[in-house]
Each structure stands twice: as C-alpha cells, then as structure tokens.
C-alpha cells in the first residue's frame, strides 16, 4: 500500500453562470492506494469549456447530465492528460512509464480498473501535443470534420472559435484537405495568427462586426458549404442563413450558451428546409473507430510541419481555476493546458 | 391553334402574414395555344402551405426565393395535380389522356415543353389518390421518413401536424414499418381519427397542452428517436429536448412560421451536442430516385387497405382561396384538394 499526498482542484458550489475564482478551491488529501490501482503523477492536463456543464446544479440540459455525470462538490474533477506512473498494482503498467488518459485536475490520479489509461509513445513529439492535437481536442476536430462534415475538396468552410483548441485544428485539416477556410476569433492577434501561422484563407474578429449575417455574406459570396460550430448563438443563426444547398453544420460546442449569458440560436428553419441543411451534434467519443487514422495522420502532419499545435500553458495546480475561467473570456490561444510537474 | 377560355386564381398583392380572401382574385383569360403545347383540363389540384412562401414580397428566407421563384402578381399559380389532355401539339400526349404533373390553380393548364407532365395510370385507385398519397405529399412523406429519418423497427416516432397531408402518411408508413408512433393535431376529431382510422399508437391535441416538453416526456417516457417536423416553433424545441441519443429530426415544413405569427424555434443545442441529434431539412424533389419504389409500395398499401388516404376536397376554382387560407387555420383533414371539373 502506497501513501500519496495529493493536492487537487474542486468546486465549492455548483456554478450556473460564468465561473469565478471563488467557486473553486485547492484541497489536500492523503490517499492510501490499494492493489490493482495505478498511481499516476499528472504532468499535463487539459482544461476545456465543456467541463462547466458538469459543474451546473440544474443543468440547462438533462442530456448533459445523462452523458457526463455532474461533478460532486469537494471531489476531484476528471480531465484528459498525460502523466507518469509512480506506482502500479497492475501488470499492464510499470513504474516510470508515460501514460495518457483520463487523469484529474490535481497532482496525482489514482486510476481504478476500467478508467481510460493507455501507455504513451510520444513519437518524438512534445508531451503537450498528446494533450492537444493528439488528444481529445484533436479527435473532436478530426471526427467532426471528416465524419460529420463529410467535406469535398474545394468546399467553403467556416470555423468559429477558430483559434481555440478544436477550431484551430479543424481549420488546418480543412486547408490540408483542399477546402477554402475562413475563421473567426475575438481579437486581432488571434485573427492574425489564423491567417499567418495556421494558413486560413481569411479570418475576422467577430467583435468588430455588427451584422454577422452580412459579414458572412461578405466572406462567403458563394455561400458556406460546411460550418464547424463551436459557439452556437447568433453566429449559428448567421451561418445557417448563409448555408448552401446540402450544407452541413457540425455542432461541436455551444460556448456562447454555457455560461447562460448568450441568447440561444433560433436558426431559420425555412432555410434549413429549402437549402436542405443538416445540423448535427456530435461527441469525439463516437469517432474512436477512426482513432488509429487520426493519430497517424495528425502525428505526420505535426512532424512535417503541415500542422501547427497551438498550446497555451499555465503552471501548477493553483493555476487551474484561472485557466478554466479564462476560457470563457477568450483568454486562451489554442489548447489550454496546465503543466503540473514543474521539474519536467 | 386552339382557343381556350380559362379562369384561374392569382394574388392581387404579396402576402407577408396570414393569407386572406382579399389577397386573391379569380381572373378570366382567353389563351391561344401554340404548337408543341399541351392543353390540360385540370381535374384535381393540390393546395399546400409551402405555396405561401412564394407569395411573400420579401421572403423571410432568401433560400425560399432561390429554390422556388416568387409568384408574379396577376399570373397563374403552379400546383401539382391531375387532369385530362384536351389538345396536344406534342406526339407524346394525345387528347383525352389522363395526366399528372405541374398544373395550375385554374381550369386549364398550358403545358410548355420541359414542364413536369406524365401520363397517368390510375391503377384502379381514385384520381385524388394521385394528387395526395401518390403525389408530392406522398413522396415527401416517403422520402422524408425512409431516407432522412432512416428508421429502425421498434423506434419511437413523433409526427406533428399528423392529420395533415404529409403527417398522416408518415405516421402510417412508420406504423407499417414497425415503429411506435405518436402524433399531434389541433382538434379532438383529428386526434380520434389518428388513433381510430390511421392506427397511431397515441395522439394528442397540442392546443390542450400548456407545457409541450412535459407533454412529450409523458408520451415518450423512453425518449423520441425520430421526429418528423411539419410545424417548427415551440414543438420543435420540445421535441429536441426529448430526443434520444442519435435521434433524427426531419424538418419538412415550418407552418407555424410561414405566416410570421409563430416564434422561431431555438432548439437546445446542448442537447443536440450531447445526444448527437441530427436536424435535417429536405425537399421531396431530392428523393425522385426512389419514386418507383414509392409508387409501387404506396399503391399496394392503399389497395390492400393497409394505408388510408385522407383527402379533403373543395369544389371549383372559386374555392381555391378559401381552401388555401384554411390550411393555416387547420381547417383541412388530410390532403387539401380542389376538384375543378365538376362533371367528372
């Protein structure tokens, strides 16, 4: 039996609007591990907007609760990440091995059997790449773009939250595939980054625009074939109004609505009918069947420099709450990751 | 050259809200036909809600105009129907033949080359069946249910405007296919008809309900797998809130919004994401590839009594405006047809 002193982030209360520092606390605990458990020292963990849905008391969506159980006050919070095994009671993991899987917003994760954990071969790439473009954000972008959007070469693609963890990858997949790609983001720096570093054909700052329908009409004079939606709300309405016949909208996230501040989208259903638009929600977990393709394709693109990984890293367990809160203010550029092991 | 005295319905002005008698007039004209034209005496013509979208001045949806050109004031209005050839300048049609295709809200149709017109074999079924369940309403129901909804046996299906021209057929296809089917309509008589004549498992009057989300939860304790949407608005929101994972919503029409009175649907996109719901607009014209299957299957069901054709017939060209206006008040039960040739 191993004794582990752990510090972790938890919520003090359920959160129904935008999250604040006061909603979180750092707790300390001593864990006495049992046989058949694997103890992982967390190195890099993912910080994602969807986690807010698990922190709500009465989720606006019953579905959210059904899919992903609500977080219990005071308990550890799951997060995807990369770590190193420090003790293992299982034959399939040994001490000092690198692993990737469902870790926690804490210094250590006690991994019970059945919990997602795999050995990690870094393939010569930085460990943060395995949390971002080769992690669940990557699979979300890959599955969402190729399986849900079903692109054809030359099609016109619009990506919202395009400098975010998923959007930045979708835009790059779409460019490599041969689509015309326009992204939007919330600062001029992000817009520049999309055009200069990620190769988007066009990008704009949605905060500078007063009439999003006209804005999209300007950027897509021939209409939008594919809209990869990370935000919902008014942008979804504006995109639907500009969709071409047989256009596809992949709904990946609804960040404008997570904090309860934004207006729900009321897309024009007459356009949906006449233009035969498909609006489809999806989760990365449904595309695990293309996991092998996803990893090999993406690792190759990263290695050859065809794709760029945007990672935005904070340091230490204490930084998790502010990293998370910042997501809803658009503070992050690319994948938000917290590095937990400082001597790495 | 043939001289035809024709009376037809037209609009005096564009219509942006609910239609009124004063928006329409009956005009008389004398047509001198040319060679290569076919003159059809209209017998039964279809009256459909979507035609209102063509009567708007500034369509709420640019898409509607793109797909289906706006109606010109004072001109004849196209409508699907059955008629008899009274003169033909084309070798492929002969006098006295029955035909089906794109006719008009008038006594005669002058058919130019390229306009949809086919010889009609009634297959021993009433001519009205060829306007309704074997016409475009039927193809809409068949294509929408089988191709868009992609049903599996045993799935739970919800149909709105279930006693309407399309809904009444969708519900019957779904029952025959082996689904559990619940419909809604706007009067108790219609509700009784759905359950007693059309074999729906359950039906309810939406006007008796105050909270549609709860109503659907009551009728679908295990959730909805397929929602065939004819109405949009609040019902679409309520259905989306009750969709099962991988549920499909086929958006066929948005009658609650055509007249500008209803509120646009703002379906909960968080449910769309977490439950991986697909919302897809469609038009019957996209499913012409399954026309042969559709006709043979449906004719067989009608002949054997497995399916019932609900037809609601008015008489004479003068009755077209009130028949059309009545669609938006829910006056019709089943397919609204105007019979134009009284001595048939």
TrEMBL record, chains A, B:
Residue ranges of domain Enoyl reductase (ER) in the record: 17-338
InterPro entries: ADH-like_C, ADH_N_2, ER, GroES-like_sf, MDR_fam, NAD(P)-bd_dom_sf
Family annotation (Pfam families): ADH_N_2, ADH_zinc_N
Domain of life of the organism encoding this protein: Eukaryota
Coiled-coil residue spans: none
Keyword vocabulary terms for this entry: Oxidoreductase
The protein, known as: Enoyl reductase (ER) domain-containing protein
